[in-house]
Fold:
Amino acid sequence: MNSRRQFLRASAATTGGLLLSPILSQIKAQAAGTKLPTRFVFVVEGNGLEPPHITPIGYKRPNVHVGKPKVPNMQGVTEMVNEPHAGKQLPESLQPIKAYRDRLTIVHGLSGRIAGGGHSNDFGALGAYNCGSGVGHSGTPTGETIDVALGKKLGGIFPHFGIGISDRKEHDVIYNSSAWGKGQPTPTICQPMTAYGALFGSIAGGNSKAEFNARTNLLDFLRDDVKRLQGQVASAEHGKLEAHLKGYEDMRNRQSRLGQIEGTLRRTAPKVTDKFKSEVESDRLDAQFDIAAAALIGGLTHSITIASGVGNPYFSVKFTGLGIDVGKHSIGHGGSFKDMSPGQLKVKIHKFHFQLMADLMKKLEAVPEGDGTMLDNTVIVYLSDAAEAHHSRCGQWPFVLIPGKNTGLQGGRYLDFPHYMQDGHREIGNLYTTLLHAAGEKREYFGVRDAMLKGAARGDGPLEALLS
Amino acid sequence: MKARHTATLALSFLTLVAEGKPDEEGFRKLVAPLIESYCMDCHDNDTSKGDLSLEKIDGNLVNGPDLGRWEKVLHQLELGQMPPEKKSQPTTAERHSLTQWIRAELLKGGRKPENKLLRPGAGNYVKHKQLFSAEDFGPAWSPPRIWRIRPSVYESGIRAIAKNGKYVRPFTLKSGGHGFRDYDNQYLLAGADLAQLMANASTAASQLTEVRVVNGKISKGNSTPNQLFNLIHPEEAPPTEAKVDAVIQWLYDRVLLRSPTLEEQARLKAFSMKSMKSDGKLLGVRNLISAVLLKPEALYRSELAQGEPDKLGRALLAPREIAYALAYALTDARPDKELLKAAETGKLITRGQVQAHAERILADDKIGKPRILGFFREYFEYGGAPDVFKDAALNRNHVPEVLVSDTDQLIMYFYEKDKDVLRELLTTNKSFVQYGIDSKTKKPIRARARNLGAHLAYSLPPDWKWIPEQPVALPGSQRAGILTQPAWLVAKSGNFDNDAIRRGLWVRGNLLGGIIPDLPITVDAQLPNDETLTLREKMKVTEEAYCWKCHQNTNPVGLPFEMFDHFGRWRTKELGKPADTTGAITNSGVRGLDAEVPDAVAMLHRLADSPRVRQVFVRHAFRYFMGRNETLRDASTLRRADLAYVNSGGSMKSLIISLLTSDSFLYRKAEDPNG
Structure:
């Protein structure tokens, strides 16, 4: 049997010296001893993630009373728990990823009070800061979010790609989850077809190559147009046109790079099926996961966020495809449906998300990379933008991590950090710092620290317990 | 008595950077003495109030160690928050030169500190008393600007050229937060917006170049104009310059509403010829269409005023700029034929000419003017009622969309009457109830609602019979204007309870012109979750000294609305006890206005009589129609607008016309007007 490296050499030869696809260049990099990039997938679900729904059976997390006034929705431990969960039964929500349990790490006890709480923390969930979302709408980002920060570090034609679903079917693009920097939200594309067009548009349709070239010519003209105007406007207005110009330049640059990997795009583009245009939200979410897999495999991006009904007020998705004809907002307020309690409904929806993650993992596992597969170089992070509850208070913020074995992060662990205000306590900013370290960026801290935490209840740097 | 510190302000100029040299002399002669006189009482090393000492602050703002501290100082000075009111104040000129100096020095080091005064919602930081005093701040102007068009304007523009395309909104207006949405400084076109704009342009271009083949015969598509069809058909015919010129002219007429200059014509022709050659004729033509649709001129409103400046250094907007400014101020459409003709023939130059067109547009019922209702919606902030989630089990008759539409109707009713508009909107007991208009017959009908009890929000009897003759009169003891409409009350409520704090914030900011700083991030802003307590009781936690500094300004003017429940229904009891609806107008800064009030109705009647409230309303109208906050430089515009409103007996139209013919609207000057 041929070794994979030999096979690749052979296949490169048959393509007759065409430009290397990202997959091939990754493997080439590997052959040359360069580290493969770590990929990050953030799956963010609206409406809160109650800690028991991801806790393996048998772990105790008693109620906690801290703060003046008391921080609500608080359970946790006073001493750090850090052990493999191998002997414990996984809860219902996590059953779909049972086959990957040795990679699965559950993280409890982190707080994110700085984000403010409420129905959604919007940009603050991935930013570890307060974005002033208030009631009804999603505020303005006050800094970059972790998914984008990782994407910037890792590069890629699209440094970050945000997709998802909204409770309003007419939404094409919304801005409430990820941000490039202060005041610079990045889009969450809510229609699979729009997302598909953005990534694979250059190969869609018969006349694609000519269209692609025509677009390049157009971009050159547009760029020139903006430059001409720059000379005429007052200096205070230059910033606006600079952003405009940079937008075109980035597109032009991306255009060149997409042009070089046409073959890869053709190989990796997902097949467009009815679910891409479906009226049913679970179908569209399924399609978005297909797109995410293709984007990662095609090397178009290394950081993806899939936002399933994130942000207030757009999180109240009705999962009719799962037979649940009631919005998540109502479920959050204790609404039941047919014979299912709100708790059961929530678990059913979480379970669906983990099923989609399991499907994604299978696809990544089928792509050989280095000594293993692409899944080994991928970290999946699952959280809710509303932390621990429908009306989140963020005294605890549960996470599920599924790190690949080459990512520098530990799989198979159950971590429960000491609760809010207790010595040894840590914040979501520490977790995000850990992810940055895993990606090779050694920052001291990511986000804004909670000023109420003092002494040993607060700490800089990554979570050592998570680093392998 | 505390010893005065003399020149102990340290200065170090060890390194010079390429961007510029720190202004040592300016610091010594101008800045240090001002800081010494106005800041050192509280910010020396001994006192260092707010953990800020300026005693040894480094005067090197280019690359010195104290840049963070300087930014803090700059913000406080610009917002007029320091020195505190009771301390001696620098003159306007001193404050101006100090902030200008700090800004210029920071800029040398490549830092561009935000001017918080320009933020939507920060307009009230400009001192009301100064704006409406007799003090002369000189003639008004706005800075030259480009301003991204609104989504609705964009959509009407692209539909005007290829109306049936399936377009996606490439950008939105910000929602939430305080202040008006369409400010000139809030929007950029970048990244995803541009990608979507290009996709839409491509959709339009495909439509405009559609060719049909029926029974082997080729004909043009529905949206394809002759000029384009002649160019693309027959396919094998080489393009001629004349045909390309005709297309360019056709596109300019419709997209930019003018003819191309010779230079523009030549450049576009060269581009499209080249693209046709390399990409094929059809794609080249489509590129030409996209190139015109995506011209910055089609995406930004341009108010550059590049004409000859007057002796004050101000230049009048060009006639075409005035035409666009007027159209976008009042409508979501581009300027109409009359405006364009006036601009082309030199009849849109004098104030009188501008006024005549503003009056014409306002008077013409055929011209849609969504901006009028838009102003009131954004000012009163009631449009968000449907976004406040209410548990259906608590009130099956709650239909927030109908409530919002009823309030829209009430506003337009008084706008049309155009008499004492603000007073009516703050005091009327009239209301529309479940009022709709049949789209076919144009007659009033009962608006559709899931359940029969939508009228219960207005505390009408359950068996009340809907009538088409509206508005109806509700008891004057229960309702007084928009703030007692269920739409407003719901928009300013929580999921389970009233939100007296946000109601108070609105009254404080939008009627009294007061300032409430942002919530400090260290504050855990949650009321206790105890169902046995009334809201007023829960709000006791805000009376701790640290919280009360701000809450004294919101709670007393927010709690009188406790005469309603969180669905906007009038009530006399809360949790089985008589509802406490008392409150007070406090800290208004206006002689004779502060008073205790028994409920919201009494408070609103009192406020409606106050000239301060009227002037604050005028300030808000200014912001909406100018797309920016007022500055002291705009004082003459505001005084004139207020006078126009008063002299016309409270006519909103007169107020708008005054603003649209003001110097602030018509003149530009390339100098930061925010000093």
